[in-house]
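User: What would this chain look like folded?
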Amino acid sequence: MPSNAEKYLRMEKMPHIWCPGCGNGIVLSALVRAFHKLNYDQDQTVIVSGIGCSSRASGYLDFNTLHSTHGRALAFATGIKLARPEVNVFVLMGDGDASSIGGNHLIHAARRNIDLTVVIFNNSIYGMTGGQYSPLTPQDNRATTAPYGTFERPFDLVELVKAAGATYIARGTTYHSAMLTKLIITGASHKGFSVIEAVTACPVSYGRRNKMGGGYDMLMWQKEHGVPIEKSRYLKPEEMKGKFLIGELHKSEAPEYTEVYQQLIDRVRGPIKGE
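Assistant: Here's the prediction, encoded as structure tokens.
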């Protein structure tokens, strides 16, 4: 953490209430490091979250923050960005919050290419509401709603938002925390819809049920299974089996939504008298 980390945190809310071994605190640390490097005006920065363990992060961050309803963080964030396009808007969501009840908002925010920086805490489970499986729970893994293992195929979040039109997509893990910080910085600096998937650990609702051990063991799992995209080019398909790519996975350019919207307003209004 930077030496002035307290500047970015609501210290009166500490200590946090995340479970021992939870990776969300590491994602929060990566966000703080990113904010320190970006040097954004805190009064010109808005952080929106939904409902879930990850969404607690907005309450710990000393910015303009909005803790919204389940799955609707992107809808609120879109309204904020349209009303105040000059502010920096970050959206913090969990895997279920973003891709299940919020899935429709996710694909349409990506389609619009609105200038939001989205960090999705992917712990493969609904951690706070009872340990149900989410659309990102790996196949055959157990949850309270899948006691014998889920038989449904999970989304590949990267491919989902890429197909929907997101112009910056990256994936990091809590083990690779320095990389995660860099990806958040790059995503925030990109003009358009940026999605950073942060693979994190839930040792209580997910790890224990799937016999993955505690927080340390789950960090080591991320180390062994997360493959930097540069390294993957030298690996054979069989060497990549069961593993996932991390790093900057997609970057493109497209018209940004609020700018196009303003152009439409200007065209409809026409020139103002006296100009």
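The longest strand covers residues 244-251. If you want, I can go into more detail on any region.
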